[in-house]
UniProtKB/TrEMBL annotation:
Gene3D superfamilies given in the database record: Winged helix-like DNA-binding domain superfamily/Winged helix DNA-binding domain (1.10.10.10)
Entries under PANTHER family matching the protein: TRANSCRIPTIONAL REGULATOR, MARR, TRANSCRIPTIONAL REPRESSOR OF EMRAB OPERON
Molecular function as annotated in GO: DNA binding; DNA-binding transcription factor activity
Organism, scientific name: Enterococcus rivorum
Keywords: DNA-binding, Transcription, Transcription regulation
Protein name as catalogued: HTH marR-type domain-containing protein
InterPro entries, per the entry: HTH_MarR-typ, WH-like_DNA-bd_sf, WH_DNA-bd_sf
Location of the HTH marR-type domain: 1-138
Length: 142
């Protein structure tokens, strides 16, 4: 039962994200991003300030391909690069507010779900759920 519930939770989260993201695209001009662009941006975001080589290694693509993707996203205003103050040859990548505005389209939905769960579930049960969820997240970590 647990694997099915986790799968269903992920699927609902994903479908709501894409539904809201598609709606958001109509107003924000995000439709110029390909699925490859979006996955590259999401990976940069999730890796938390990676270097060019960390992105290249993660995606298992050539350096020239990674540079092309990254530079395209910098030009479009979704990524920025910051020079390492200790090693001027190294750059860290960060997503911009433009990306975060798009990526966070589900924040209000998640806030509402959490509020509703807090109203429907006993405090002790919610604390147990939070502990269990923390274990699941830990198990999924590298």
């Amino acid at each position: 039962m647990l694997p099915e519930l986790i799968d269903e939770f992920y699927n609902k989260l994903a479908i709501n994200f894409y539904r809201n993201a598609i709606e958001h695209q109509k107003f924000e001009g995000v439709s110029t991003l390909s699925s490859t662009d979006m996955s590259t941006l999401e990976i940069v975001y999730l890796l938390n300030r990676p270097t060019y080589s960390e992105v290249t290694d993660f995606l298992k693509i050539s350096t020239s391909n990674a540079n092309y993707r990254i530079n395209k996203l910098i030009t479009k205003g979704y990524l920025k690069r910051e020079q390492d103050p200790t090693d001027k040859r190294r750059y860290f990548l960060n997503v911009t507010e433009k990306f975060m505005d798009y990526y966070c389209v589900n924040d209000s939905l998640l806030e509402q779900v959490v509020k509703n769960v807090r109203n429907r579930v006993r405090k002790e049960d919610l604390e147990q759920f939070e502990s269990t969820l923390a274990i699941i997240i830990e198990e999924m970590s590298d």
